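Example 3.2
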Amino acid sequence: MTWELASFVVLGLALILGFTWYERSHADSRTLALVATLAALAAIGRIAFAPIPNVKPTTDIVLIAGLALGGAPGFVVGAVAALASNLVFGQGPWTPWQMVAWGLCGLLGALLGRLAGRDIGRVPLAVACGAAGLAFGAVMDLSVFSTYAGSHTFGQYLAISLTSLPFNLAHAVGNVAFALAFGPMLVRALLRFRSRLAVHWEDLAPKPPAAGAAPLVTLLVACVLVAGWGLGGAAQPAAAMSVTRAGSAATWLASVQNTDGGWGTAKGASSNAVQTSWTVIGIAALGRDPLAVRRRGRSAESLLRRYAGRSRTTADLERTALALAAAGISAQTGGLLTRLRAAQDSDGSFDGLVNLTSYGILALRASGLGSRSTVVRRAASWLAARAGKDGGFSYSGRGVSSSDDTAAAVQALVAARYPRAAARGASWLLGHENMDGGWALQPPGASNAQSTALAIQALIAIGMRATRRLPGMTRSPIEYLRSLQMDNGRIRYSRTSTQTPVWVTAQALAALAGRPMPFRLRRP
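Structure, written as tokens:
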């Protein structure tokens, strides 16, 4: 194999690995647009400064992209910038070398972000950009050595490097000058993008148990397949419609936000902890940063921090902890997590109630405690033992099973990795769905949005789809929720209700978005 062929094989593998890495990162559309914009900016920068040999801002832009956005986006910005700019300068055997060299500058930026932090100073950033220019030159010297040198000796490589040294130094000096001029500004702009838009979700509930893991789970899956919730048929159009309806509900919630950043029971009503917390959770379930929703420049952050310090009852502690996690705020704020853990009784429950113990587990998991932590396992063990003979759960653990309490318990048991008890609870929910596709608080009864939303989240948590219509039923659960949605996006509690508090729309939004509790927003 010749030097030329070997070098192009290595380059090809490097490019394939880089682009595959980026593809597997599943970047959202906004990140894709930003990467494309940065690549175009880097290419234009190279073209604009073409009259000055080897002085160009391209390397700085690529390195900063990697520093702010990560290794995979940084690599792609560099590689695409080289390919795009060579449409003007001319393609040739040097193109893949430039693509890899600038891609490596993006990786260097990501490494710099990990080692020195993204809030790097102006001078260190300029030094790094200068070093990246020299590294780029070294790679391009290697390209000349591999492609055009005859016997490929070290002396030849040294001669090539000495010949290109003035150009490489000019590149490095230019990089330093550009970084000193605009580097910190570009870093801040990209980091602002990441904190506001490019959020990352960490699902805390494990994946559904594998077939055969437990007889009850296998039996449940078989029942679901027979009933029509399993394979077969196209559910994608309904899922896409649900996302659209969820966006409409989120738009309505944003329209009724108060000037203090919170929400009340209705438009114009004073903000309170219940409405604000559930609205934050609902908006976050859609994949949006709830703190980016503002009225007159104010978000719900200050209110959430205030609620964290003031919460005292178990219900307030749990709800606020879920809202803090959904907003990407530490559960330690205001000593909330400490008080939440102290609220657990000696038997593992929270106030001896199924409902509060379910939400206690969800709040603890959302706050960062693992499913194997002692506090979570004690609560889950107590909760699983309170299942009724029918598999459902009641508020106190001693009464008639209800939809809301069973749905919350299923989500908590999935999050705590208690699949058998969760499967029995889900089976109870399936057996008590109304013919209109919804659930009543206490079956038999009229369906409502809250009970249906919680049931949908529970079924999704255990691995089922809420777009399925059971035989003989007029609607699927998702279709039932959509039937309650008004033209402005608001969701009514039931068909007969005229006044519905804001939190009902927020809870329905989480179900339409297809996200069971708990989850937390992890900021870059």
